[in-house]
C-alpha cells in the first residue's frame, strides 16, 4: 500500500539532487504555475493549430478545384460531344474572375491594413525570378494576341465567344504579374484564412491552365491540317495567317512557363502567411554577387554559349525555311553530346569539393530554399521522362542508325547530367557562406571607387591597377573556393544556353519525327508539352540555384 501510494506521487524535478535541508525555490515554482505562463503557452499552441487548420482547409480547397478542372479536361479529351473546349474555357474564366477579385481585394484592402505586412522574406521572389515572370508574362500576352488574331481571321468558321477567352486571359496574366512583382515577399499578418484560400485558388487556376496547355492540341492539329491542305477552315489572308501560326507555335511554351513560375511564387507566399521572421534571420546579410576569383569558368562557358548560338541559328534557319534535314539534327545532338559530359564532370567535381570542405550546414528555416529543392527535383522529371520515352522508342525501332544512336546517347547523358547537377546545387544551397575576413575585398572596392575619379589621361594606368588587384584577389583565394566558383559560373552559362535553345524555338524532339511516329501525334504532343516546359523551367531555376552556390563560395 505504501509503495503504491509513493509511486502515485508526482515527481518533483526541482527537488532532484537537492539536500533535504535545502529550501525549495518558490520563485521558480511560482513562475511555472503562474497564469501568465499557462496563458501565453496556450496562445502560442492555439496559433500554431489555427495556422495548420488554415493551411489544411486552403489545401483542400485547391485540391477540389484541381480535381474538378481535371475532370472537365479528361471529359473533353475522351468525350468531345458532352464536354467541349468551350465548357472548359467557361470554367477557367470563372476561376480567373474569382482570382482577379481576390487579388484586387488583397492589393487595395488586405495589404493596406495596419500592421498587415510587418516582415518581408528577403529570400522570396529574387530579381531573376521576377524578371523571368515579366518576360514569360509578356510573351504569354503576345501569345493570346496572336490567338485573337488567328480567331478573327477564321471568324467565318469559329465562334465569336472564342475571342472573349483570350481577352480574359490577358487581363489575368497582367494583373497576376504585377501582383507578384510587388507582393511576392509579403509575410501577411492579417486575414490569414482568406489570404491562404485566395493564394491556393490562384495556384489551382494556374495548374489547370498549365494542364490545359499540355493537353489541348486543337490549334496545333488545325495548323497541321492546313499544311496538309485537309483543313475545313482556310485562311483568307495567307501572309497574316502564317504570321499568326508561326507566332503561336513559337510562343506556346512561354504560357506554360508563366504558369509554373506563378505557382512557385504563390506557394512561397502561401507558406509565408502569418510567418514572423526572427531578428537573427532578418539581420542575416546575404553575400552579394561579385565577379571575382573566376577566369576559366567564364571562358569555357562563353565558348559553350557562342557555339550553342551558332548551332541554334543554323537549326532555326533550316526549320523556318523547310523541314529540317538530317545533317541539322546530327549537328544539334552532337553539340549536346559534347557539352553534357563536361557539365556532368564539373558537377561531380564540385560535389566532391563540397564533401572535402569543413563548412557547417545552414539549418535555418527557409521556405524559399525548401521550395527550390522541390522545384529542382520536380522540374528535372520533365526532361528525364522525355528521355526515357525516347530511349524506349529508339531501342524498339533501329538503335544502330546514326541519328538514332545520337538521340540515344543524348537521352542517357541528359538523365545523368540532371542527376549530378541536382546533387551539386542542393548540396551547395545548404552550405554556410565562407566566413573570411573581408578586409582585402573592402580595400579593393575602396581603391576601385577612388580610381573612378581619375582623369581620362590615367585610364590605362587605372586599368592596370584594377587588373593587378583582380589577380591579387584571385591568387589569395583557396583552391576549393576557386574551383567552386569556376564550376558554378561555367554551369550558369551552360544552363543559360540550354535554356535559350528550346525556349526560342529549337524543338528537335518533336520535329525529328521518330518519337512522333512511334507514339502517335496526340500522345507525343502531350508528352512534349509536359516535359519541355518543365525542362525549360529547370534550366532557368538551375541558373538561380547555381548563382546562390557561386555567391556562398
From TrEMBL:
The keyword Membrane applies. It is a multi-pass membrane protein. One of its GO terms (cellular component) is plasma membrane. It is found in: Cell membrane. It comes from the Eukaryota. The keyword Nuclease does not apply. GO terms for molecular function: proton channel activity. The chain crosses the membrane at residues 56-82, 88-108, 128-153, 159-181, 193-213, 249-270, 291-315, 335-353, 373-396, 402-425, 487-506, 518-538. InterPro entries: Otopetrin (IPR004878). Keywords: Cell membrane, Hydrogen ion transport, Ion channel, Ion transport, Membrane, Transmembrane, Transmembrane helix, Transport. It holds the Pfam family Otopetrin. Coiled coil: none annotated. Its main location: membrane. Belongs to the otopetrin family. This is OTOP3 protein.
Amino acid at each position: 500500500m505504501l509503495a503504491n501510494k509513493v509511486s502515485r506521487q508526482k515527481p518533483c524535478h526541482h527537488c532532484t539532487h537537492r539536500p533535504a535541508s535545502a529550501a525549495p525555490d518558490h520563485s521558480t515554482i511560482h513562475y511555472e504555475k503562474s497564469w501568465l505562463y499557462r496563458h501565453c503557452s496556450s496562445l502560442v499552441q492555439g496559433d500554431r493549430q489555427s495556422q495548420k487548420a488554415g493551411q489544411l482547409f486552403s489545401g483542400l480547397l485547391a485540391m477540389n478545384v484541381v480535381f474538378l478542372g481535371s475532370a472537365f479536361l479528361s471529359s473533353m479529351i475522351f468525350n468531345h460531344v458532352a464536354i467541349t473546349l468551350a465548357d472548359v474555357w467557361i470554367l477557367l474564366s470563372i476561376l480567373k474572375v474569382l482570382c482577379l477579385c481576390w487579388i484586387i481585394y488583397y492589393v487595395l484592402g488586405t495589404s493596406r491594413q495596419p500592421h498587415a505586412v510587418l516582415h518581408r522574406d528577403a529570400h522570396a521572389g529574387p530579381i531573376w525570378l521576377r524578371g523571368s515572370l515579366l518576360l514569360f508574362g509578356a510573351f504569354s500576352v503576345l501569345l493570346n494576341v496572336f490567338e485573337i488574331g488567328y480567331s478573327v481571321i477564321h471568324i467565318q468558321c469559329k465562334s465569336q465567344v472564342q475571342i472573349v477567352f483570350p481577352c480574359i486571359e490577358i487581363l489575368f496574366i497582367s494583373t497576376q504579374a504585377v501582383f507578384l512583382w510587388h507582393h511576392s515577399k509579403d509575410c501577411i499578418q492579417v486575414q490569414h484564412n482568406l489570404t491562404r484560400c485566395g493564394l491556393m485558388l490562384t495556384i489551382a487556376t494556374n495548374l489547370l491552365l498549365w494542364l490545359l496547355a499540355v493537353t489541348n492540341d486543337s490549334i496545333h492539329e488545325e495548323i497541321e491540317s492546313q499544311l496538309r491542305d485537309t483543313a475545313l477552315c482556310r485562311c483568307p489572308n495567307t501572309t497574316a495567317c502564317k504570321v499568326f501560326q508561326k507566332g503561336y507555335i513559337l510562343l506556346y511554351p512561354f504560357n506554360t512557363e508563366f504558369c509554373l513560375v506563378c505557382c512557385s511564387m504563390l506557394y512561397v507566399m502561401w507558406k509565408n502567411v502569418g510567418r514572423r521572421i526572427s531578428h537573427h534571420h532578418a539581420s542575416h546579410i546575404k553575400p552579394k554577387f561579385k565577379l571575382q576569383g573566376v577566369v576559366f569558368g567564364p571562358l569555357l562557358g562563353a565558348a559553350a554559349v557562342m557555339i550553342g548560338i551558332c548551332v541554334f541559328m543554323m537549326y532555326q534557319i533550316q526549320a523556318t525555311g523547310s523541314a529540317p534535314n538530317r545533317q541539322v539534327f546530327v549537328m544539334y545532338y552532337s553539340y549536346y553530346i559534347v557539352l553534357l559530359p563536361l557539365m556532368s564532370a564539373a558537377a561531380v567535381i564540385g560535389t566532391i569539393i563540397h564533401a572535402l570542405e569543413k563548412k557547417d550546414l545552414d539549418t535555418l528555416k527557409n521556405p524559399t530554399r525548401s521550395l527550390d529543392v522541390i522545384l529542382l527535383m520536380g522540374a528535372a522529371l520533365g526532361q528525364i521522362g522525355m528521355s526515357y520515352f525516347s530511349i524506349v522508342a529508339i531501342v524498339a525501332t533501329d538503335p544502330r542508325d546514326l541519328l538514332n544512336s545520337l538521340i540515344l546517347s543524348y537521352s542517357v547523358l541528359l538523365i545523368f547530367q540532371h542527376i549530378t547537377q541536382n546533387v551539386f546545387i542542393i548540396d551547395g544551397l545548404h552550405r554556410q557562406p565562407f566566413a573570411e575576413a573581408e578586409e582585402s575585398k573592402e580595400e579593393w572596392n575602396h581603391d576601385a571607387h577612388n580610381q573612378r575619379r581619375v582623369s581620362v589621361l590615367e585610364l590605362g594606368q587605372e586599368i592596370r591597377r584594377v587588373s593587378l588587384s583582380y589577380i591579387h584577389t584571385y591568387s589569395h583565394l583557396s583552391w576549393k573556393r576557386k574551383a567552386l566558383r569556376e564550376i558554378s559560373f561555367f554551369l550558369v552559362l551552360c544552363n543559360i544556353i540550354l535554356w535559350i535553345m528550346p525556349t526560342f524555338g529549337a524543338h528537335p524532339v518533336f520535329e525529328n519525327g521518330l518519337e512522333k511516329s512511334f507514339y502517335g501525334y496526340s500522345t507525343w504532343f502531350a508528352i512534349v508539352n509536359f516535359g519541355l516546359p518543365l525542362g525549360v523551367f529547370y534550366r532557368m531555376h538551375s541558373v538561380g540555384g547555381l548563382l546562390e552556390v557561386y555567391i556562398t563560395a
